[in-house]
Amino acid sequence: MTENAPAVPGTPIEDGPDLDRRRMLTTTTAIVGAVGVALTAVPFIESLEPSEKARALGSPVTLDISKLAPGEMMSAEWRQKPIWVLHRTAEQLAELPKLNGQLKDPLSQEPQQPANLPGWNPVQRSIHPKYLVVVGICTHLGCIPKYRPQLNPPDLPAGWEGGFFCPCHGSRYDLSGRVMDGSPAPLNLPVPPHYFKDANTISAGELADGSQQNWEPDTW
Ligand code: FES
Hints:
Blueprint: H1 17-46, H2 50-57, E1 61-64, E2 73-78, E3 81-87, H3 90-95, E4 131-135, E5 146-148, E6 163-165, E7 172-173, E8 194-198, E9 201-204
Antiparallel strand pairs: 1-9, 2-3, 3-4, 5-6, 6-7, 8-9
């Protein structure tokens, strides 16, 4: 087939040096294009009006917790990040205040949650005692911690009361997402804006009046 001849439907395209080169250029252009989009996305989002910014960052997500048994955790995605809901048992809740002396920010004074969350308890770090809602990203360098509810497992430091353990550099968080002393992570896990639509449904990413959709923590 000559260079300018139209392709006949169903005719195999012959390989050759020109075709290889064209394929390489196409691939390179696609990669450069993808990198360009990634590099321009942040300034683009920062320049938007609040409502547009909220849409670009990601809509709130609805979480069905009707089947979440005590001690279980579920995961979803919000703003391309993992978001967890943990259904804590009465025993787990009772342990939380006892850990206050081993934590960097036991009363959640750093802005790792929206201000004035209705019903907020700074030790439980939740608006409903049982249900912890956090973003599952370590505040050290962004790995995803593991949910480790067992007491004193052999592979974790002695005295482990259950919590979240980051396998990358060993940061430890309690079952409220509060970071423990001696961890490289500086801050508690972020608690996103959220509210209960009903007893079995949480909306994460906004408050009941639709506000706080642009909220971001000090550190993800
Ligand atoms: S990223 Fe979690 S401890 Fe470093």
